[in-house]
Each structure stands twice: as C-alpha cells, then as structure tokens.
Design goal:
Layout: H1 3-10, H2 19-28, H3 35-44, H4 55-67, E1 74-77, H5 86-93, E2 97-101, H6 105-114, E3 121-123, H7 127-133, E4 138-143, E5 152-158, E6 161-167, H8 169-178, E7 181-191, H9 194-197, E8 214-220, E9 235-240, E10 248-251, H10 256-264
Parallel strand pairs: 1-2, 1-4, 2-3, 4-7, 8-10
Antiparallel strand pairs: 5-6, 7-9, 8-9
C-alpha cells in the first residue's frame, strides 16, 4: 500500500474505517490506486473477504477478449463487489451498457468511487432476479460466485425442457446468464475447483450442454490471491455458447511470458486451440 494511503487509514477514527471515506480522500488528493492498494485497504479495515482481483488477471481478460475479437457492447458482473473486475473492463472497452450487481447500498457508494463515473449501472437485487430481467444479447458475463456451496433444488428452463438442479443459486444464475450470451459471447468467472469436479448429475458443470453452453477456458490461478483462501486454489473459467471440443487449459500467473503463451493460442474465428471453438 502506498505510504500516503496508509496515512489516510491510520488517521481515520478508531471506531471503524469506511473504505468509501478513505477512497474519497485518496481521490481528492489525486492518488493513483493500484489493485494491490485496494486489497490491502480492505484487509486493514477488517473486510478481507472483499478483494480486488490482481491486475494481471483483469489484463489477461481484456487481452483474451481482444484475441477472440469480442468487442463488448453489453457486460454484466453478477457479483461485482467480489473481485471488482468490472471497472477495468469498462475502462478498456467502454461498452454501451454495463451492469454491476452488488449486495447493498453501502457497496454502491464504494463502487461509485472505484468505477468510471456514470458508466456502470449498479443494482442491489438478487443475481438470479437480475438475470431474469436480461434480454438475450449479452457479450460478456463475469464475476466471482460465492465460495461457499449451499445447494438447493431448483427447477430451471433449458432448451431441452425443464431441469431440476441441485446447485447453489449463484451457479444457477451463472448458467442462466450465460444462456443469454451472444453466439460469440463469453462468460468469465473465478470459481473453486468444486465447480468442475463436483459429482452429481444435478450440478452445474455436467449440465452445460443442456443450456447450450461449452467450456472454453480453464486456467489455474496462483494460490493466495483471493481471500478467504480455502487452500484449494481458484480457477478462471470461460463458458460460451459456441461448441468448444478442446478448451484452453493451463495456468495463469503474473509472468508475462506465460500470459503471452496462453494468448498466442487464442485465434479470432477459430477459438482457443485451433479447433472450432469460439466464433
């Protein structure tokens, strides 16, 4: 954390520090805050579960979208306060419409300080309720679904008819949102390994095809980048509507050479590995 920002935190009341108040002061002083500064700030004020996705991840996401020739017009982050991935994408792509779903009005005030002014529509509804209002034609869905898996039986509509899932509502919202993607759109999420390894015919991953979806991207992330970290690590996954028999699989680290090697496998109009993935 920058020394000036640390001074702002130290000078705040001992009764509790509001991240929004500190960020407001930082903006008034025209401090340029790195993602690492935000992560450290949230930890210092007692909300370590709120984390800012490291810059190398959001930079990869932007380059990956460019490599797929996706020019987002509509972007939706269903869990925008978990990771804060939406603001960097809005800065890079300037979509016509950007929607961020956050848990409460307090987070909205914080979000307005972290994001480009007036370019993101923030809402505080349940993610599934927000998805139900979305029309097909979304270019990018993203987010960090809640880490804790709390399954319940949920009936959903798919192209093949009704389906009963035994899943966490967040993962159901993820599938429903991705089913509203454009043909070359992509859903990008940071999930736990359980998302792809959890057994059972009623969980999300085994039912991708029922929603007309396919796995396009599966990258292991370095341990310790998110809080709390259960020790099992996290994955960056990409889900699209186009068929992708051979998804891009590997690991993503801050190493620029590794990132370049991953991006070299992304071909516009051909997908991740030279197969028929993507557009």
């Amino acid at each position: 954390m920058q020394p000036v920002l640390r001074e702002l935190v130290a000078g705040a009341s001992n009764k509790g520090v509001e991240p929004a108040a500190v960020l407001r002061q930082a903006r008034a002083r025209q401090l340029a805050l790195a993602r690492e500064d935000l992560h450290a700030l949230f930890a210092l004020v007692g909300t370590p579960e709120v984390f800012a996705t490291p810059g190398f991840i959001t930079e990869f996401l932007c380059a990956y979208l460019c490599g797929r020739s996706v020019r987002p017009r509509v972007v939706v982050d269903l869990w925008a306060a978990a990771g804060w991935m939406l603001p960097p994408l809005v800065e890079v792509f300037s979509p016509a419409r950007a929607i961020g779903v956050v848990p409460d009005d307090r987070t909205v005030r914080l979000a307005e300080l972290l994001a480009p002014a007036g370019r993101i529509a923030w809402c505080t509804d349940d993610p599934r309720a927000v998805v139900a209002t979305l029309e097909p034609g979304i270019d990018v869905v993203l987010g960090c679904p809640p880490w804790r898996w709390q399954p319940r039986q949920t009936q959903v509509e798919t192209a093949g008819g009704p389906l009963v899932l035994t899943e966490d509502p967040a993962n159901v919202a993820l599938l429903e949102a991705c089913s509203r993607l454009t043909p070359d759109g992509i859903g990008l999420f940071i999930v736990g390994p359980g998302f792809v390894m959890r057994p059972g015919p009623g969980t999300a991953f085994p039912n991708l095809d029922r929603f007309g979806l396919s796995l396009h991207l599966l990258l292991e992330l370095p341990r310790g980048i998110v809080a709390p970290d259960s020790g099992s690590g996290r994955l960056l996954i990409g889900i699209g509507r186009a068929s992708c028999p051979v998804p891009l699989v590997g690991s993503l680290t801050p190493d620029p050479q590794r990132t370049a090697a991953l991006l070299a496998a992304v071909r516009p109009g051909r997908g991740e590995t030279g197969s028929a993935c993507g557009r």
